[in-house]
Amino acid sequence: MIIGYEDKVSEVYMELLPVLSKAPKSGTTAVKVLDCLGIVAFFGATNSEDIQNAMQIIWQFIHADQSDANEEKHSAAVLVAA
């Protein structure tokens, strides 16, 4: 990934974080969302708080299926992406 404008990457991170936190939580879409979150956080996070916010989304995502016994568990591919 080539970054020409570091300020813009941080701006993209800040705008995408809330969107990614509400994305679908199953199937190939979830894998793509988690990959996107990882890339955006790696390149766009400017401090430890930004990284912590991204990690909190992933943590909540992984543990969301444990709160409801009727919900389907995450596939192995989705957990690996997380």
What does this structure look like?
- The chain is an all-alpha fold.
- The chain has one domain.
- It has 4 helices and no strands.
- The chain has helices at residues 6-21, 27-44, 48-64, 76-81.
- The chain is elongated and about 40 Å long.
- The two termini are 20 Å apart.
Percent helix range:
55-70%
Portion in beta strands:
under 5%
Large-scale geometry: elongated
* Strand and helix order: HHHH
Oligomeric state of the chains in view: single chain
Based on secondary structure, the structural category is mainly alpha
Keywords:
mainly alpha, 82 residues, elongated, 4 helices
Summary of the model, kept short:
Residues 3-82 form the Interferon-related developmental regulator N-terminal domain. InterPro entries: IFRD (IPR039777), Interferon-rel_develop_reg_N (IPR007701). The protein has helices at residues 6-21, 27-44, 48-64, 76-81.
How is the secondary structure organized here?
Elements: H1 6-21, H2 27-44, H3 48-64, H4 76-81
